[in-house]
Design brief:
The complex is a heterodimer of chains A (317) and B (279). With 317 residues, chain A is α/β, with parallel strands linked by helices. Chain A has 2 domains: 8-175, Thiamin diphosphate (ThDP)-binding fold, Pyr/PP domains (Rossmann fold, 3-Layer(aba) Sandwich), CATH 3.40.50; 189-315, Rossmann fold. Chain A has helices spanning 12-26, 38-41, 44-49, 61-73, 84-87, 92-100, 129-134, 147-156, 205-218, 236-246, 261-272, 292-298, 303-315, and strands at residues 8-11, 30-34, 54-56, 77-83, 107-111, 140-142, 164-167, 172-175, 189-192, 197-201, 223-227, 230-232, 249-256, 277-282. The radius of gyration of chain A is 19 Å and the shape is globular. Chain B has a 5-stranded parallel sheet with strand order 1-2-3-7-6, with helices on both faces. In chain B, strands 4-5 form a two-stranded antiparallel sheet. The model of chain B has no long low-confidence stretch (mean pLDDT 98). Classes of the chains: A alpha/beta (317), B alpha/beta (279). Chain A binds chain B through residues 31, 52-53, 55, 57-58, 60, 62-76, 78, 93-94, 96-98, 101-104, and chain B through 55-58, 104-106, 113-118, 120-133, 135-136, 154-155, 158-159, 161-162, 165-166.
């Protein structure tokens, strides 16, 4: 099998901006809202194309979620844009009551998720958002891995009727998925076949898993990599198919260990196919200021941490 | 409807409220009774609405209740105006009912477009609907009722600021200004201060209404509608009496969220004429 290589480096948030502009141009029901972070969310192109369908709400995220629920009630497809921290924890009750419980077709688009936000520090580096969102009944939770996948996901969620949490990030990141891909919600992507261990990775950690697999291959360890871009609903069949072959699992995500993708996989395996498993995730800790790569290393999300997790799980196999 | 017919309908709505909360020994009669005249006027006279109910509400007036705990008055009026069968009122707060303790869309009750109960959220939703109407070229009106204690929620003022800045002038907010909340009077708990001045300084056109005087409700709501389309959102500060129509529930916050026992239920019903037939 040929090695996975990156053909570009771009931020996932740029993929969101490009996807929003594209779906905005083709679907007149799409509207967008932003809480004073237009530049950060890369929403300028959409605004330029469709100024009448853009709503600047100011630094008032609770109101933004409510307005989005109202727009959806009347048949629009609202995309809200702000940082992941302010898209979730700050407005959890608004999302819970006005959007999730009320079955509103709102797309909550959340940038700057996780440690890779970098220098702004822990106030902004949310690592609990996936857990909060996946607990809400009926909420779809998506965390794409690169620019191209984020763009495709941004376009695809307009066709899905129901609330969606779309999570992406700030830094430039390797782009390795096809530019012309069609995004299928809930369908895991098989990136690389292997026989010793299955890595289930989401978001930025997919690339770190690919890099780790190259190191492991040089040591004779055969790694299967599955990209779980949709954390909820989880593609259970893809997980079980892979695990039935490898018998060992590592999950990898830029999120707290508690409540993230790893927990979803562990829950499934416990019920259907118990095997040794290790987490690559933040271990019950807040982040801090620093460069993205430094932070990933310090908090156990670096390439070497994936390598170590694989070796540890193989010892238990 | 004539004022006399509206008042008679409101009397039946009040009977429904008392009987609903009594039957399950829970619910919020005080604010529901206070708003019975307003709800009756809205659904039987003021709004151009369709009881066959479409969620998106295109080309009709739409109503949002932000202070969802006064669900009994809304359920009664929705049923009495044709949204669902009146006998269904007997399922209020029961297991498997569409009439949840606080209004919800989850069970598919016609007339409800968003869940409410956790306070402070309804005005934002109403603004979103008003923006959609503007995009759709739909000239109908969006109404939103909030409580007065609810104005202590910060999100309300985010919404108030937004509506002014964006000239949301197809929206009428109504505040149930009964001066009471669960723990006591507004002034004891957290005073609203100069309430008209607050709204005015946020750029809204402020109107005053006696919410327990049917003629005044019709007059002021008509004036509010006539004031729309001028670049300013409109708020109606509606004075009501919590517990209006039941003497022992008036002048106190005690019946905000408490149901009467058998004896007090009978005492209340003796004060409220049965005009349309109890369910």
């Amino acid at each position: 099998m040929s090695e996975i290589t990156a053909y570009d480096k771009k931020a996932t948030r740029d993929g969101f901006g490009a996807g929003l502009a594209e779906i905005g141009a083709s679907n007149p029901d799409v509207v967008a809202l932003c809480a004073d972070l237009v530049g950060s969310l890369k929403m300028q192109q959409f605004i330029k194309q469709s100024p009448e369908r853009f709503f600047q709400v100011g630094i008032a995220e609770a109101n933004m979620m409510g307005i989005a629920a109202g727009l959806a009630t009347a048949g629009k497809i609202p995309y809200t844009g702000t940082f992941a921290n302010f898209s979730t924890g700050r407005v959890y009750d608004q999302i819970r009551q006005s959007i999730a419980y009320s079955h509103k077709n709102v797309k909550i688009c959340a940038s700057h998720a996780g440690l890779t936000l970098g220098e702004d520090g822990a106030t902004h580096q949310i690592l609990e958002d996936v857990g909060m969102m996946k607990m809400l009944p009926g909420m779809t939770v998506i965390n794409p891995c690169d620019y191209a996948q984020t763009k495709a996901a941004t376009i695809a969620i307009a066709e899905h009727h129901g609330p969606v949490y779309l999570r992406f990030g700030r830094p430039g990141w390797p782009v390795f998925t096809p530019a012309d891909q069609k995004f299928e919600i809930g369908k895991a992507l098989h990136l690389q076949s292997g026989s010793d261990v299955s890595i289930f990775a989401t978001g930025h950690l997919v690339w770190n898993s690919i890099e780790a697999a190259k190191i492991l291959a040089s040591e004779g360890i055969s790694v299967e990599i599955i990209n779980i871009h949709t954390i909820k609903p989880l593609d259970e069949e893809a997980v079980l198919d892979s695990v039935s072959k490898t018998g060992a699992v590592v999950s990898a995500e830029e999120h707290q260990r508690h409540g993230g993708l790893g927990d979803s996989i562990a829950q499934l395996l416990m019920r259907k196919m118990p095997v040794p498993m290790e987490y690559v995730a933040v271990n019950d800790s807040f982040g801090e200021s620093g460069k993205p790569a430094q932070l990933l290393d310090k908090y156990g999300l670096g390439v070497n941490d994936v390598v170590t997790a694989v070796k540890n799980v193989l010892k238990r196999k | 409807m004539t004022i006399d017919q509206l008042e008679k309908t409101a009397s039946q709505v009040r009977r429904d409220i008392i009987r609903m909360v009594h039957a399950v020994s829970s619910g919020h009669p005080g604010g529901s009774l206070g708003c019975a005249d307003f709800f009756t006027a809205m659904y039987f006279e003021i709004m151009d609405h369709d009881p066959s109910f479409n969620m998106d509400g295109k080309n009709e007036d739409m109503f949002f209740l932000s202070n969802g705990h006064i669900s009994p008055v809304w359920y009664s009026v929705l049923a009495r105006s044709g949204y669902f069968p009146v006998p269904e009122l007997s399922t209020f707060r029961h297991l498997d009912s569409r009439l949840q303790g606080h209004p919800a869309t989850h069970e598919g009750l016609p007339g409800i477009r968003v869940a409410s109960g956790s306070l402070g959220q309804g005005l934002s939703v109403a603004i979103g609907v008003a923006l959609s109407k503007r995009l759709n070229g739909d000239d109908k009106t969006v109404y939103c009722l909030t409580g007065d204690g609810e104005l202590q929620e910060g999100q309300i003022w985010e919404a108030v600021m937004y509506a002014c800045h964006n000239k949301v002038d197809n929206l009428i907010a109504v505040v149930d200004w009964n001066g009471q909340q669960i723990d006591g009077s507004n002034d004891d708990v957290l005073t609203l201060g100069d309430l008209p001045g607050k709204w005015e300084s946020f750029g809204w056109q402020v109107m005053h209404m006696d919410g327990n005087n049917m003629a005044d409700v019709l007059k002021v709501m008509a004036e509010a509608k006539a004031a729309l389309g001028n670049g300013k959102p409109v708020v109606v500060l509606m004075k009501t009496e919590m517990g209006q129509g039941v003497d022992y529930m008036m002048g106190t916050h005690a019946w905000h969220g408490k149901a009467p026992n058998d004896e007090l239920k009978d005492k209340a019903l003796a004060q409220l004429e049965e005009t349309l037939g109890d369910y």
